[in-house]
Every structure is written in structure tokens, then in C-alpha cells.
Here is the input.
Amino acid sequence: MMSLNKVLLIGNLTRAPELRYTPSGTAVADLRMAVNRNYSTQSGEKREETCFLTVVVWGKQAESCGEYLDKGSQIFVEGRLQTRDWESKDGQKRSATEVVAERVQFMSRTKGAGGPGGGAGATAAVPATPGFAADEQHGGDDDVPF
Here is the structure.
């Protein structure tokens, strides 16, 4: 049986990236992203709804996100959905569905992009870092919901 888990998003960061490192030294960045959907009702009224998502970025891509992105930056994300479960400090079972980025492309002015060629519309893409051990992906954040 075939299956597919692929996510493509364009949106804006709602806060600066949160960059941290696993105990083995692998960079991981958490991005909070807003994606808008514009539509018209049957009566012709225009509406907009916003979906807020957490995007997890690993390796060199994570470091680039931490260095060049800031609140409001527009990005394109290609990745997959992943649900993770954990138990909080007070014993409650928790879960979160996140987008694990395979590729992040910077689509708007980014912090530190004030030099030549770094104006609005400047883009950069960092290739995905291949293969991470499953224990590295969640090291040290067992009680943190995102």
C-alpha cells in the first residue's frame, strides 16, 4: 500500500527562530509560522483564516535559520508531518503535530541582509542534512511541548 507524507507551505514567522543544540551537538531550530488562507463565502464575502504551525529544522539549515531569519520573515518550507508524544512533568500525556523541514527557502528580507544583494526578495536555500538518529531528534526536550 502506498502512502505519502509531504507538506509545502509559504508563510511568515510569528517569532524569531529558537535555536538549540542536542547533547551530541546537532543544531535544531523551532520556527513558529503563520499560513493564511483567503477564500470567498457563497455570498461573495471575502474571508481569511490563519493556521499556526510549528516547523522543526535540523543541522546546517537550523543554524542558517537562526542566523538569517527573524519575526515576520517569509519562508517556503518543504517537509513532512510528524506527531510526537511525551509526558509532562506533572504526569499528563501530551502530543504535538509538527512539520519536520526537509528544505527551507528564505523568501523575504532577512536579518543581516542589509548589504548589497540582500534586500527585499533576497532568497537563500540550504540543502537538507541527511539522516538523523531518532534519539537526536528529541534529545533533551522530553518535557517541552514544542
